[in-house]
Amino acid sequence: MTLRHGKAERSIQELYRDDPERADAVAFGRRGALKGTALAAMGGMLGAAIPFAGRMPEGTLPALFARPAAAQGAAPAVLRMEGKAPLILQQERPLVGETPEHLLDEPVTSYANFFIRNNGGIPDPVADPRTWKLRIDGEVNTPLELTMGDLESRFPVVTRQLQMECGGNGRAFFAPQTRGNQWGNGAIGNAEWTGVRLRDVLQAAGAKETARYTGHFGADPHLSGAADRAAISRGMRMAKAMDEDTLIVFRMNGQPIPHIHGAPLRLLVPGWPGSLSQKWLTRVTLLSQPHTGAGMGGTSYRMPVRPIVPGSNNNGADFADMESMPVRSILSSHAHGTRLPAGTRSLDLRGAAWAGDLTVRAVHASVDFGATWTEMQVAAPANRHAWQRWTGRVALPSDGYYEIWYRATDSEGRMQPHAPANWNPQGYGANPISRAAILVG
Ligand SMILES: Nc1nc2c(c(=O)[nH]1)N[C@H]1C(S)=C(S)[C@@H](COP(=O)(O)O)O[C@H]1N2
Ligand SMILES: [Mo]
């Protein structure tokens, strides 16, 4: 969608970003409630009447133009990989693919629809996974070197549905824009993982009193090729390492883990930034001080304790590590921008919601720009740390342009905000209410 203004033709999104008041005036010739020619202008741009125009908050940029894919001014690039759905190609090197939100419609996310996030290269697959060794060392009484066979025979094997979400999921909603992959809501997956508890393995190694943090290491090379640099190497507090749902996994959805997701072994640290879930796992070390690997400290996976000025520079020295992820919901029954047949008068909505280590208490949807909200039915999670599916029905009074607004509330009463809060240089934790545009007729 482009907008003519003098000689320049710019995307409406760009114009809104640079100068919202002028963009609003140029686009709709007004500030204030939509009426008369302004309403006709917006309707014309959307290609439809807006039945709830009277409830549209002043200055609202229609979701049809505001969502990230549209913001790029072009159709997103597509990832083409054997067995994978056409994910949104965020980057080729390192390889990063986002799942379009409407493909996350399965209760258990398949390999095909699971997002991909790499920070470095992709290691060569090993010929025989049985030869893979995992080292446990540092502040332990007995350092261990374990094969896959050792893990399976020495420790209880558990299978859990666990949600894993990139710390930067939702980053594209931040303004001003931050560095990093411009994720929408699709850097999330909820697969069924099989493995052993990290806790059992650390106990077998005899974690010392002095062990307070973990450090994680994987086999993937740094993009520069430098052998002494890690692509990513993060760590967490012992409390999370000892959580019963923090696993060393070797199967995803009942199959050996696909190579791109970390075969043959990876960590799965549900509810906390995905970067802790080290793929191609070779070593876990226990430390008395926070780990200092790649992706630790500064502004990496860290959030301001006191809000900072959006867009300002900050070295993150007094930020705090991001831990449990904030509440978020997705809509999987209808793709953003869907056109439905004339006469459609109700929509059966479906999606998922999750909230880091917490659960989701409620999901609400609105089709009238947030003036009224309908409570959806939210299912219990399959187990702790699994996402929760939701369903519900909304009524549409006539044909035209609608936005489905959807938002979740966590078990402590925190709701997704109208705009992302606590802006930070690397764009973590943006979880605003989402908006999907739907055209009827
Ligand atoms: N070894 C290794 N592990 C890694 C990464 C990586 O680049 N290398 N990326 C992390 C990040 S940032 C995320 S969000 C998840 C993504 O896992 P996936 O690619 O299986 O979806 O893996 C994490 N584990
Ligand atoms: Mo991530």
From TrEMBL:
This is Molybdopterin containing oxidoreductase. Residues 125-293 form the Oxidoreductase molybdopterin-binding domain. Residues 323-438 form the Moybdenum cofactor oxidoreductase dimerisation domain. It holds the Pfam family Mo-co_dimer. Keywords: Metal-binding, Molybdenum, Oxidoreductase. It comes from the Bacteria. Its cofactor is Mo-molybdopterin. GO terms for biological process: sulfur compound metabolic process. SUPFAM superfamilies: E set domains (SSF81296), Oxidoreductase molybdopterin-binding domain (SSF56524). Signal peptide: none annotated. GO terms for molecular function: heme binding; molybdenum ion binding; molybdopterin cofactor binding; sulfite oxidase activity. InterPro entries: Ig_E-set (IPR014756), MoCF_OxRdtse_dimer (IPR005066), Mopterin_OxRdtase_euk (IPR008335), OxRdtase_Mopterin-bd_dom (IPR000572), OxRdtase_Mopterin-bd_sf (IPR036374).
